[in-house]
Amino acid sequence: MASQAPVPRTPLSRDRVLRAAVEIADADGLQAATMRRIGESLGAEAMSLYYHVANKNDLLDGLVDVLMDEITEAVDGDRPADDWKQALRQRILSARQVMLRHRWAPGLLEGRTSMRPAVVLYHDQLVGLMRSGGFSYDLAHHALHALGSRALGFSQELFDPSAGAGEVSDRMLAELASQVPNLAGMLAEIAHDDPESTIGWCDDQAEFEFALDLILDGLERLNS
Amino acid sequence: MASQAPVPRTPLSRDRVLRAAVEIADADGLQAATMRRIGESLGAEAMSLYYHVANKNDLLDGLVDVLMDEITEAVDGDRPADDWKQALRQRILSARQVMLRHRWAPGLLEGRTSMRPAVVLYHDQLVGLMRSGGFSYDLAHHALHALGSRALGFSQELFDPSAGAGEVSDRMLAELASQVPNLAGMLAEIAHDDPESTIGWCDDQAEFEFALDLILDGLERLNS
DNA sequence: ACCTGAACACCGTTCAAGT
DNA sequence: ACCTGAACACCGTTCAAGT
User: Fold this and answer.
1) For the purposes of burial, counting CB atoms within 10 Å of the CB of A191, is it exposed (0-12), middle (13-18) or buried (19 or more)?
2) Is the separation of the CB atoms in A17 and A38 below 8 Å?
């Protein structure tokens, strides 16, 4: 009998490795995307990955690249803008949509110092939009710093958005009031104004846009 | 002969463990502060730490606490402020001084969702300052989001400040110019204006203050 | 060219055992 | 009460060996 041909497994590739990693990170977080687990999900051994990826660091760089590809694609769909402000706003909010699809992305970008070309390019284009809006290089430079990670559509959330979730009982408010009266008052008012907001305190998207517009408005004033 | 009394090693304690961890993180980064290494630096075994600290997560929470203690201490030294804006500004810049002493702190706070009481209290006080400046709860809430991690004295740096360090040769500029013309132009101008800036592109402190003031100015306008 | 088995040096953590 | 040795399940990574 001829030897049974083994199921012709699609060969690995950098691309397949990265896509597998994204899938795992999307589902279970970045820390779940270990070499062993990625290998497993591809029906291969962890060590096989090293043929397509230099090491873990290179793999993470690769994740940044696929992320930036997705952002570029999203941004290409933006409709032409009337002015620099609208252009920046649209672009950043489009980038944010990608970030929201990949909850691991902010955490990944935070830790990275790798200066991936795609990230540099993205910021170059932001500066381009500002320049065509009349920004000096100096102001554009300041603007990049002021935006910080917001330029890519996310911002540091110091409190877990889901931690404050659920109902806010009067009892909890009373306890809070003695320790942190100002936050308690704030929370009480928000709970009063929007008793249905069981998703937690805040509408993240609205808050993101508020902060973004605050910065863009400030820049506009400095640019005139 | 009486049994040789062993060197009476100071017993461990949560406090000693945390201080050892801070020392290691200051010197070699947070990732160097492993249980084994902390134990070693105290002349004990890694497993001994578990008597004073529930687990690694609890240890990291502890690090946040010592950080917040330091910030509270720094903030207490602030001179009384004339208005809410100056008060916020001083407080945030004082917090920043602590962050600069502990380069691992931003990275630690980023990842944490733990809602440490000290962090909540810090933000409560910020809101208190805003309230006494006439802020509505709603505006104060927006303000916290707009400040984000900046409220604690740091912000997301997407590029490694030290990565751009060193001289910027004309050759590098030429290479950059074709790929990222806008950034290249920006860099060229900065290098021209301040040829001595070998620390890298930017004065981080100045940029931080620029962004902070941009936000505070924006809030002031909304508050009047 | 592509993949793997065995092995190494590291993690955090448990637990029974020592003083 | 406080500390430790041995052990476990996990990391990333190397390298000689297989096809």
Assistant:
1) middle
2) yes
B50: Cβ under 7 Å from strand D?
yes
Checking if the pLDDT of B30 tops 80, the result is yes
B165 at the A interface (CB within 8 A)? no
Within 7 Å: CB of B38 and strand D?
Answer: no
List chain B residues with CB under 8 Å of A117.
179
- Find chain B residues with C-beta within 8 A of A202's C-beta: 141, 145
Flag whether pLDDT at A157 surpasses 80: no
Query: Where in chain A are all domains bearing CATH 1.10.10.60?
Result: 10-53
Contact criterion met (CB < 8 Å) for B208 and A145: yes
Does the distance separating the beta carbons of B111 and A146 come in below 8 Å? no
Dist. CA B183–CA A126, nearest whole Å = 9
- The closest of A146, A62, A50, A55 to A112, measured between CA atoms, is A62
Question: Is the C-beta atom of A51 closer than 7 angstroms to strand C?
Answer: yes
Q: What is the mean pLDDT of residues B152-161?
A: 78
- Residue B216 is which amino acid? L
The CATH class for the domain spanning B10-53 reads mainly alpha
Residues of B in contact with A219 (CB under 8 A): 214
> Position of tokens 């911002």?
A155
Say what the pLDDT of residue B1 is: 45
Is CATH 3.50.50.60 what the domain over A54-156+167-223 is classified as, yes or no? no
DSSP-derived 3-state class of residue B165: coil
pLDDT digits (tens, 9 = 90+) for B177-208: 889 999 999 988 887 776 665 445 677 899 99
How far, in Å, CA of B126 to CA of A1, rounded? Answer: 79
Q: Which residue has the higher pLDDT, A128 or A6?
A: A128
Interface list for B 116-135 with A (CB within 8 A): 117, 119-121, 123-125, 127-128, 131
Residues 6+ apart with CB under 8 A from B126: B88, B91, B144, B147, B151
Listed in sequence order, the residues at least 6 apart from B214 whose beta carbon sits closer than 8 Å to its beta carbon are A146, A215, A218, A219, A222
pLDDT at A192: 76
Give yes or no for residue B72 having a pLDDT over 90: yes
On the question of pLDDT at B87 being above 70, the answer is yes
Q: Residue A191: which pLDDT band, with cuts at 50, 70 and 90? A: confident
Q: Stated in angstroms, how far is A116 CA from C1 C1'?
A: 29
Tokens for A181?
């009266």
Range with the lowest mean pLDDT among A8-12, A20-24, B80-84?
Answer: A8-12
Tokens 């008012």 belong to: A189
